[in-house]
What we know:
Largest sheet: 6 strands, mixed
Number of strands: 10
CATH class of the largest domain: Alpha Beta
Bound molecules: adenosine-5'-triphosphate, magnesium ion
Amino acid sequence: MTASPPVIRLRGAGRRFGSHHAVADVDLTVYAGERVAVLGTSGAGKSTLLSMLNGSLSATSGEVEVLGANLANLSPSRLRAIQRRIGTVSQRLDLVNQVRVLHNVNAGRLGRWGSIRALAALAWPRADPTVTEALRRVGLPWAVHERTERLSGGERQRVAIARLLVQEPDLVVADEPVASLDPTRAAGILELLGVPGRPVTVVVSLHQPELARRHCTRAIGLRGGRLVFDLPVEHLDDRVLADLYTLT
Ligand SMILES: Nc1ncnc2c1ncn2[C@@H]1O[C@H](COP(=O)(O)OP(=O)(O)OP(=O)(O)O)[C@@H](O)[C@H]1O
Ligand SMILES: [Mg+2]
Protein backbone atom coordinates (compact mmCIF):
# COMPACT_ATOMS: atom_id res chain seq x y z
CA MET A 1 0.00 0.00 0.00
CA THR A 2 1.37 3.44 -0.87
CA ALA A 3 0.84 6.26 1.59
CA SER A 4 -1.44 8.94 0.16
CA PRO A 5 0.30 12.24 -0.57
CA PRO A 6 -0.16 15.04 1.95
CA VAL A 7 -3.07 17.44 1.55
CA ILE A 8 -0.85 20.34 2.64
CA ARG A 9 2.90 20.68 2.45
CA LEU A 10 4.61 23.94 3.40
CA ARG A 11 8.37 24.24 3.11
CA GLY A 12 10.00 27.32 4.58
CA ALA A 13 6.80 29.20 3.76
CA GLY A 14 6.56 32.85 4.67
CA ARG A 15 4.59 35.97 3.97
CA ARG A 16 5.95 39.48 4.30
CA PHE A 17 4.00 42.74 4.29
CA GLY A 18 6.61 45.39 3.52
CA SER A 19 9.38 44.61 5.98
CA HIS A 20 7.05 42.83 8.44
CA HIS A 21 7.22 39.04 8.45
CA ALA A 22 3.64 38.04 9.29
CA VAL A 23 4.49 34.35 8.72
CA ALA A 24 8.08 33.13 8.58
CA ASP A 25 9.76 29.89 7.64
CA VAL A 26 6.90 27.49 8.35
CA ASP A 27 7.35 23.78 7.61
CA LEU A 28 4.08 21.87 7.89
CA THR A 29 2.79 18.62 6.42
CA VAL A 30 -0.86 17.66 6.89
CA TYR A 31 -2.39 14.36 5.76
CA ALA A 32 -5.96 13.56 4.79
CA GLY A 33 -8.33 13.37 7.72
CA GLU A 34 -6.16 15.34 10.15
CA ARG A 35 -7.83 18.13 12.08
CA VAL A 36 -5.28 20.80 12.86
CA ALA A 37 -5.92 23.65 15.29
CA VAL A 38 -3.91 26.84 14.76
CA LEU A 39 -3.31 28.64 18.05
CA GLY A 40 -1.58 31.92 18.88
CA THR A 41 -2.14 35.40 20.25
CA SER A 42 -3.73 38.16 18.20
CA GLY A 43 -1.29 39.13 15.45
CA ALA A 44 0.61 35.83 15.62
CA GLY A 45 -0.07 35.16 11.93
CA LYS A 46 -2.99 32.71 12.05
CA SER A 47 -5.17 34.43 9.44
CA THR A 48 -2.16 35.04 7.21
CA LEU A 49 -1.20 31.37 7.35
CA LEU A 50 -4.76 30.22 6.59
CA SER A 51 -4.98 32.64 3.66
CA MET A 52 -1.78 31.14 2.27
CA LEU A 53 -3.40 27.68 2.49
CA ASN A 54 -6.47 28.62 0.47
CA GLY A 55 -4.52 30.61 -2.08
CA SER A 56 -6.06 33.98 -1.23
CA LEU A 57 -2.58 35.23 -0.23
CA SER A 58 0.58 34.13 -2.01
CA ALA A 59 3.73 33.20 -0.12
CA THR A 60 6.65 35.61 -0.45
CA SER A 61 9.13 32.86 0.43
CA GLY A 62 9.22 29.08 0.45
CA GLU A 63 6.66 26.71 -1.05
CA VAL A 64 2.97 26.06 -0.49
CA GLU A 65 1.55 22.85 -1.90
CA VAL A 66 -2.15 22.16 -1.39
CA LEU A 67 -4.17 19.22 -2.76
CA GLY A 68 -1.19 18.19 -4.86
CA ALA A 69 -0.54 21.57 -6.49
CA ASN A 70 2.17 24.14 -5.89
CA LEU A 71 0.01 27.25 -5.54
CA ALA A 72 2.75 29.54 -6.90
CA ASN A 73 2.77 27.90 -10.33
CA LEU A 74 -0.93 27.77 -11.12
CA SER A 75 -2.84 29.55 -13.82
CA PRO A 76 -5.84 31.50 -12.47
CA SER A 77 -8.24 28.80 -13.72
CA ARG A 78 -6.22 25.95 -12.14
CA LEU A 79 -6.07 27.93 -8.88
CA ARG A 80 -9.87 28.37 -8.97
CA ALA A 81 -10.27 24.63 -9.57
CA ILE A 82 -8.21 23.90 -6.44
CA GLN A 83 -10.08 26.56 -4.48
CA ARG A 84 -13.42 24.92 -5.32
CA ARG A 85 -12.19 21.93 -3.32
CA ILE A 86 -11.26 24.13 -0.33
CA GLY A 87 -14.04 25.26 1.98
CA THR A 88 -13.11 28.57 3.54
CA VAL A 89 -14.65 30.35 6.48
CA SER A 90 -12.79 33.65 6.73
CA GLN A 91 -12.66 35.82 9.82
CA ARG A 92 -14.72 38.40 7.90
CA LEU A 93 -17.19 35.65 6.84
CA ASP A 94 -17.46 37.11 3.29
CA LEU A 95 -21.24 36.94 3.19
CA VAL A 96 -23.32 39.20 0.98
CA ASN A 97 -25.42 41.00 3.58
CA GLN A 98 -28.04 42.51 1.28
CA VAL A 99 -29.40 39.18 0.02
CA ARG A 100 -31.36 36.37 1.63
CA VAL A 101 -29.62 33.63 3.57
CA LEU A 102 -30.56 31.15 0.85
CA HIS A 103 -28.34 32.99 -1.68
CA ASN A 104 -25.34 32.92 0.63
CA VAL A 105 -25.68 29.19 1.34
CA ASN A 106 -26.19 28.41 -2.35
CA ALA A 107 -22.97 30.25 -3.19
CA GLY A 108 -21.10 27.28 -1.70
CA ARG A 109 -21.89 25.08 -4.69
CA LEU A 110 -22.03 27.53 -7.57
CA GLY A 111 -18.41 26.73 -8.38
CA ARG A 112 -19.29 23.10 -9.06
CA TRP A 113 -22.08 23.98 -11.44
CA GLY A 114 -21.88 25.03 -15.09
CA SER A 115 -22.38 28.74 -15.73
CA ILE A 116 -25.98 28.42 -16.95
CA ARG A 117 -27.10 26.48 -13.90
CA ALA A 118 -25.19 28.86 -11.62
CA LEU A 119 -26.77 31.93 -13.25
CA ALA A 120 -30.23 30.35 -12.99
CA ALA A 121 -29.62 29.65 -9.30
CA LEU A 122 -28.65 33.29 -8.76
CA ALA A 123 -31.70 34.60 -10.64
CA TRP A 124 -34.25 32.15 -9.19
CA PRO A 125 -32.88 30.82 -5.92
CA ARG A 126 -34.72 27.81 -4.56
CA ALA A 127 -34.56 26.40 -1.07
CA ASP A 128 -33.90 22.86 -2.22
CA PRO A 129 -33.29 20.04 0.28
CA THR A 130 -29.49 20.50 0.28
CA VAL A 131 -29.78 24.10 1.42
CA THR A 132 -32.57 23.38 3.89
CA GLU A 133 -30.62 20.49 5.40
CA ALA A 134 -27.42 22.57 5.74
CA LEU A 135 -29.36 25.31 7.54
CA ARG A 136 -31.01 22.73 9.78
CA ARG A 137 -27.60 21.32 10.71
CA VAL A 138 -26.29 24.73 11.79
CA GLY A 139 -29.49 25.39 13.77
CA LEU A 140 -30.98 28.01 11.44
CA PRO A 141 -33.87 26.22 9.72
CA TRP A 142 -36.05 29.33 10.11
CA ALA A 143 -33.57 31.69 8.43
CA VAL A 144 -33.70 30.49 4.84
CA HIS A 145 -35.63 33.51 3.51
CA GLU A 146 -34.28 36.08 5.98
CA ARG A 147 -32.13 38.91 4.75
CA THR A 148 -28.60 38.10 5.88
CA GLU A 149 -27.99 41.57 7.36
CA ARG A 150 -30.83 41.01 9.86
CA LEU A 151 -29.01 38.12 11.52
CA SER A 152 -26.79 38.40 14.58
CA GLY A 153 -23.01 37.91 14.36
CA GLY A 154 -23.24 34.32 15.60
CA GLU A 155 -26.08 33.52 13.20
CA ARG A 156 -24.12 34.93 10.28
CA GLN A 157 -21.16 32.81 11.33
CA ARG A 158 -23.44 29.76 11.08
CA VAL A 159 -24.65 30.81 7.62
CA ALA A 160 -20.99 30.76 6.53
CA ILE A 161 -20.72 27.20 7.90
CA ALA A 162 -23.88 26.15 6.01
CA ARG A 163 -22.34 27.52 2.80
CA LEU A 164 -19.28 25.38 3.49
CA LEU A 165 -21.42 22.28 4.10
CA VAL A 166 -23.14 22.48 0.71
CA GLN A 167 -19.76 22.91 -0.97
CA GLU A 168 -18.62 19.44 0.25
CA PRO A 169 -14.93 20.42 0.25
CA ASP A 170 -11.93 18.10 0.57
CA LEU A 171 -10.10 20.63 2.74
CA VAL A 172 -11.65 23.03 5.25
CA VAL A 173 -9.75 26.20 6.15
CA ALA A 174 -11.66 27.99 8.88
CA ASP A 175 -10.49 31.18 10.59
CA GLU A 176 -12.05 31.49 14.05
CA PRO A 177 -15.34 30.00 12.84
CA VAL A 178 -16.80 29.92 16.35
CA ALA A 179 -15.54 33.26 17.67
CA SER A 180 -19.08 34.70 18.07
CA LEU A 181 -20.77 31.55 19.38
CA ASP A 182 -21.66 30.39 22.87
CA PRO A 183 -19.74 27.28 24.06
CA THR A 184 -22.49 24.75 23.30
CA ARG A 185 -23.11 26.10 19.84
CA ALA A 186 -19.35 26.33 19.19
CA ALA A 187 -18.88 22.64 19.98
CA GLY A 188 -21.76 21.68 17.67
CA ILE A 189 -20.37 23.73 14.79
CA LEU A 190 -16.87 22.28 15.14
CA GLU A 191 -18.40 18.79 14.96
CA LEU A 192 -19.95 19.77 11.63
CA LEU A 193 -16.66 20.80 10.02
CA GLY A 194 -15.72 17.18 9.45
CA VAL A 195 -18.22 15.57 7.10
CA PRO A 196 -19.12 12.05 8.29
CA GLY A 197 -17.89 9.30 5.99
CA ARG A 198 -15.46 11.51 4.05
CA PRO A 199 -11.80 12.09 4.93
CA VAL A 200 -12.12 15.84 5.20
CA THR A 201 -8.98 17.60 6.37
CA VAL A 202 -9.53 20.59 8.61
CA VAL A 203 -7.25 23.48 9.53
CA VAL A 204 -8.98 25.79 11.99
CA SER A 205 -7.76 28.74 14.02
CA LEU A 206 -9.19 28.90 17.51
CA HIS A 207 -8.79 31.16 20.51
CA GLN A 208 -9.97 28.45 22.93
CA PRO A 209 -7.37 25.66 23.42
CA GLU A 210 -10.10 23.59 25.10
CA LEU A 211 -11.96 23.38 21.78
CA ALA A 212 -8.74 22.33 20.05
CA ARG A 213 -8.29 19.53 22.58
CA ARG A 214 -11.81 18.27 22.05
CA HIS A 215 -12.28 18.67 18.32
CA CYS A 216 -8.86 18.45 16.71
CA THR A 217 -6.19 15.78 16.40
CA ARG A 218 -3.21 18.08 16.27
CA ALA A 219 -2.35 21.63 17.31
CA ILE A 220 0.22 24.04 15.99
CA GLY A 221 1.29 27.20 17.78
CA LEU A 222 2.31 30.41 16.06
CA ARG A 223 4.25 33.14 17.73
CA GLY A 224 5.48 36.18 15.82
CA GLY A 225 4.69 34.29 12.61
CA ARG A 226 6.87 31.32 13.48
CA LEU A 227 5.82 27.80 14.30
CA VAL A 228 6.70 27.20 17.95
CA PHE A 229 5.04 23.81 18.41
CA ASP A 230 3.34 21.09 16.40
CA LEU A 231 1.82 18.47 18.69
CA PRO A 232 -0.90 15.87 19.00
CA VAL A 233 -3.64 17.59 21.03
CA GLU A 234 -3.07 15.19 23.94
CA HIS A 235 0.25 16.99 24.49
CA LEU A 236 -1.29 20.44 24.60
CA ASP A 237 -0.71 21.04 28.30
CA ASP A 238 -0.73 24.18 30.44
CA ARG A 239 3.02 24.72 30.10
CA VAL A 240 2.89 24.68 26.30
CA LEU A 241 -0.06 27.09 26.35
CA ALA A 242 1.54 29.41 28.91
CA ASP A 243 4.62 29.68 26.67
CA LEU A 244 2.43 30.46 23.68
CA TYR A 245 0.20 33.05 25.27
CA THR A 246 2.71 34.86 27.51
CA LEU A 247 2.99 38.35 26.09
CA THR A 248 6.48 39.69 25.63
N1 LIG B 1 -2.68 42.97 4.60
C1 LIG B 1 -1.79 43.23 5.56
N2 LIG B 1 -0.96 44.29 5.45
C2 LIG B 1 -0.04 44.57 6.41
N3 LIG B 1 0.12 43.85 7.52
C3 LIG B 1 -0.68 42.79 7.70
C4 LIG B 1 -1.68 42.44 6.74
N4 LIG B 1 -2.32 41.32 7.18
C5 LIG B 1 -1.76 41.01 8.36
N5 LIG B 1 -0.77 41.89 8.67
C6 LIG B 1 0.05 41.85 9.88
O1 LIG B 1 0.57 40.53 10.01
C7 LIG B 1 0.52 40.12 11.38
C8 LIG B 1 -0.28 38.84 11.49
O2 LIG B 1 -1.64 39.14 11.23
P1 LIG B 1 -2.78 38.03 11.23
O3 LIG B 1 -4.03 38.72 10.81
O4 LIG B 1 -2.32 36.88 10.44
O5 LIG B 1 -2.83 37.65 12.78
P2 LIG B 1 -3.86 36.69 13.55
O6 LIG B 1 -3.03 35.70 14.29
O7 LIG B 1 -4.87 36.18 12.62
O8 LIG B 1 -4.52 37.69 14.61
P3 LIG B 1 -6.05 37.70 15.21
O9 LIG B 1 -6.09 36.66 16.29
O10 LIG B 1 -6.17 39.10 15.77
O11 LIG B 1 -7.00 37.45 14.09
C9 LIG B 1 -0.03 41.28 12.16
O12 LIG B 1 1.05 42.01 12.71
C10 LIG B 1 -0.76 42.10 11.13
O13 LIG B 1 -0.79 43.46 11.47
MG1 LIG C 1 -6.88 36.42 12.44
